[in-house]
Amino acid sequence: MARCWLGSLAVLLLLALGPTNGLAAMSMGGAPITQTGKTAHFRLMLQIGPMETMYSKADAAKMHPTTGEIMVGGAMAMSGGAMIGQTGAMTTDTRHLEVHVASLATGKVTTDATCQITVTNEATKASQVVPIAMMYGVKEGTSDWHYGNNVSMAPGSYTVKVVVNGEPALFHVTIPKS
Fold first, then answer.
1. How does pLDDT run across 143-168, given as a tens digit for each residue?
2. Where exactly are the structural domains of the chain?
3. Contact by Cβ (8 Å): 131, 149
């Protein structure tokens, strides 16, 4: 219970800090990229980290995993993802991209947002629309509610466009070479 509370506190603290400046890059140890931003009505926290195993609620109830994500809605990426019972192309370039959404007015986590996420490689201009799954971390519980998926992102610079209930925000991130 204390871990869940501390995880929630960390997410809310990062959301409260406001936008970060400049580019963010994953550290050598694989720590997630974290950036914050906001729209007219929402505070956003973008995180990009190592690929996550995603479980349906039914699979999580049967298997009792200690890591990964529990999907509560939406779609899992068909390539580059790892979900119990499904196979896909998993590479070292597969990352877990998630966006936490909180109301600016109340500070509460928003669990009913309509989100769109588009990732554009700045060098090649190739874009991919991220299939949106609603999920939360196995360890953190529902206070970790977020939107996103496992996506293919080779080392390089990217623009991540997030639209929440029609309100856009842009993030610029760099995925370093391992």
1. 999 999 999 999 999 999 999 999 99
2. 2-22+33-112+131-153
3. yes
Contact of 12 with 3, CB cutoff 8 Å: no
Both tokens assigned to 91: 């590479």
H and E: helices and strands count for the chain: 2, 13
Phi, psi of 126 (to 5 degrees): -75, 135
Query: What are the pLDDT digits (tens) for 52-99?
Result: 999 999 999 999 999 999 999 998 876 444 433 334 455 679 999 999
- DSSP single-letter state for residue 98: E
Contact 53, 112 (CB under 8 A): no
Q: Among candidates 127, 112, 122, which has minimal Cα distance to 157?
A: 122
Q: pTM of this prediction?
A: 0.79
DSSP 142: G
